[in-house]
Amino acid sequence: MDYFAPPTIKDVIAALAPLKDISRPPGDNEGDPLNSPHVYRHLARDARERVDHAVQVAREYTRQPGDFGDAPNRRSLTTLTKNGFPAHLGPDQYDPYRLVGSVQAGEWKLDLSDPALNEDDEA
Length: 123
Known about the structure:
Elements: H1 9-16, H2 37-40, H3 45-62, E1 63-64, E2 71-72, H4 74-82, E3 87-91, E4 99-105, E5 108-111
Antiparallel strand pairs: 1-2, 3-4, 4-5
Helix pairs in contact: 1-3
């Protein structure tokens, strides 16, 4: 991947596909995204590195830069879904400048949301 060019669908698939092989750690984390604190902190270092890379590439691929901040890239989201990685991204219900969404890789969901401005937003 060229570090100055935006990622392609091939780049994103190459980053997401290895996540399917990550085993769910023990504990009450059923339904939690792979990059949620409840799951992420229990992963091995190599799995965390795969998750970090996948989040970075998928976030860049699913966003379209704009004058007033990023917007969802609808074409990219549709392409991901057509390639077996269902994805959605849209404005947060309470903060229209914050994007929230995820992409599915096998049994795992990867949270693609922008960080919350304060801890009260993270329920």
